């Protein structure tokens, strides 16, 4: 997946963007980038791998070299960004968060139109999705027209953030509104973010959520709408379920409270159906499962405990590494037990979702190995039957990697 943060002001905003982008680190683990502009130096840019070193550590040296009253930054699980573009629209820095399913077809169409166009090739000959979106945009006479055209051609999802050399941010939310984009104000300027807490922590205040397909031009003085919102919205509910940080708000709803409510609903249903198990404690699979367990405990009356703790300083989220052996190892290694809360206990565990089943199996084995008497598991999310073709959630070689699909096949056959 990924995320972006940008700011424009009458003062230097590089440090704001440094912290704002870092607050999106829960959304991606592969690459980070920043681009700043000022009238004396023009654009300055840095892109680094964050696979083994966190964003904040990787960019500590760069922020001392950058200066700018306009700056954008990205966390990406795929292409390096932001990139710098020169076209008839001017020189600008640009980032795109989402997924383009028809990228190969769009690239071939652009290259075969007889105009002598070309792309910089990434490893394996692939085209950077950000450069592809820029190529589509640049076929029109303005940023607003170009962004609306690019989004109309894309099969997938594309949140777009641009810093221009005339001192403005241009932000566009995906045409279906699958991902959020928020606008904040404060500190002699404005900011754009995909996580509300990122700018609230920096002293900005909420202005509003952008609508699906909406595009705005933002300066220190305020915003100008380039493209009005479209009518249809298909927001990704998994931001509440798993992706979103607990203190984020999406579409006016708190992530933490949504998760609390989900746990409470599980307890209510089990009470009504007479299926509530006889357990000693209620627990959440950290981190995102914890809020569901709190909601379950508050509604059921079963005490909440934390019989194992996730070692957070170094382990990434277990689904993100592409290698299945590495996912398996991470799921096992990152959980540290509290033996006194496990041995001889009947435990109820609630997780945000069950995707491949890797973490579920590891959790159950882990608890029994540490002396649990019984282990009961609940998932707050309905069975996941398909990989996401819009946000790169649960990437894999086959949908049969999803445990729900395998279970249905075992029960019903081909």
Number of helices: 12
- What is the helix fraction of residues, given as a range? 25-40%
| Helix vs. strand class | alpha+beta
Number of strands: 20
> Can you tell me the residue ranges where pLDDT is under 50 for at least 5 consecutive residues?
none
End-to-end separation in angstroms reads 32 Å
Describe this structure in words.
The chain is an alpha+beta fold. The strands form five sheets. It has a seven-stranded antiparallel beta sheet. Strands 5-6-7-8-12-13 form a six-stranded antiparallel beta sheet. Strands 16-19-20 form a three-stranded parallel beta sheet. The model has no long low-confidence stretch (mean pLDDT 89).
Keywords:
alpha+beta, seven-stranded antiparallel sheet, six-stranded antiparallel sheet, 414 residues, 27% strand, globular, 28% helix, 12 helices
Question: How are the SSEs placed, and which strands pair?
Answer:
Blueprint: E1 2-9, H1 14-22, E2 31-38, E3 42-49, H2 55-58, E4 70-76, E5 83-87, E6 90-100, H3 103-111, H4 129-137, H5 143-153, E7 156-164, E8 169-172, E9 182-186, E10 189-193, H6 196-200, E11 205-209, E12 215-219, E13 222-227, H7 238-243, E14 249-250, E15 253-254, H8 255-273, E16 281-284, H9 289-300, E17 308-310, H10 324-333, E18 335-337, E19 346-351, H11 358-369, E20 374-379, H12 403-412
Parallel strand pairs: 16-19, 19-20
Antiparallel strand pairs: 1-4, 1-10, 2-3, 2-4, 5-6, 6-7, 7-8, 8-12, 9-10, 9-11, 12-13, 14-15, 17-18
């Amino acid at each position: 997946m990924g995320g972006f943060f940008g700011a424009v002001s009458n003062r230097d905003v590089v440090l704001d963007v440094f912290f704002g982008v870092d607050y999106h680190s829960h959304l991606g683990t592969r690459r980070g980038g920043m681009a700043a502009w000022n009238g004396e130096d023009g654009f300055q840019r840095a892109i680094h791998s964050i696979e083994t070193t966190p964003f904040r550590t990787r960019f500590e040296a760069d922020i001392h070299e950058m200066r700018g009253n306009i700056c954008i930054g990205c966390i990406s699980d795929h292409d390096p960004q932001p990139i710098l573009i020169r076209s008839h629209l001017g020189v600008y820095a640009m980032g795109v968060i989402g997924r383009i399913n028809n990228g190969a077809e769009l690239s071939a169409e652009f290259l075969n139109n007889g105009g002598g166009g070309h792309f910089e090739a990434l490893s394996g000959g692939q085209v950077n999705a950000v450069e592809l979106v820029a190529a589509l945009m640049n076929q029109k006479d303005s940023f607003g027209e170009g962004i609306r055209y690019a989004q109309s051609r894309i099969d997938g999802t594309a949140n777009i953030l641009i810093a221009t050399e005339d001192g403005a941010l241009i932000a566009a939310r995906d045409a279906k509104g699958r991902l959020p984009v928020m606008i904040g104000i404060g500190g002699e300027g404005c900011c754009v973010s995909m996580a509300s807490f990122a700018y609230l922590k920096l002293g900005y205040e909420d202005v509003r959520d952008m609508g699906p397909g909406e595009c705005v031009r933002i300066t220190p003085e305020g915003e100008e709408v380039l493209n009005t919102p479209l009518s249809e919205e298909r927001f990704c509910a998994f931001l509440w379920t798993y992706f979103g940080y607990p203190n984020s708000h999406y579409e006016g709803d708190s992530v933490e409270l949504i998760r609390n409510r989900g746990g409470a609903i599980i307890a209510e249903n089990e009470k009504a159906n007479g299926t509530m198990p006889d357990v000693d404690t209620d627990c959440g699979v950290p981190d995102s499962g914890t809020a569901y367990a709190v909601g379950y405990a508050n509604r059921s009356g079963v005490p909440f405990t934390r019989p194992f703790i996730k070692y957070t300083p170094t382990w990434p989220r277990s689904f993100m590494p592409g290698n299945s052996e590495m996912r398996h190892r991470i799921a096992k290694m990152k959980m540290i037990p509290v033996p006194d809360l496990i041995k001889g206990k009947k435990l109820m565990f609630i997780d945000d979702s069950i995707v491949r089943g890797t973490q579920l199996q590891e959790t159950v084995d882990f608890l029994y190995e540490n002396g649990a008497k019984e282990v009961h598991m609940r998932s707050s999310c309905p069975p996941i039957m398909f990989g996401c073709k819009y946000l790169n959630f649960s990437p894999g070689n086959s949908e049969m990697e999803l445990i729900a699909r395998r279970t249905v096949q075992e029960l019903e056959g081909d």
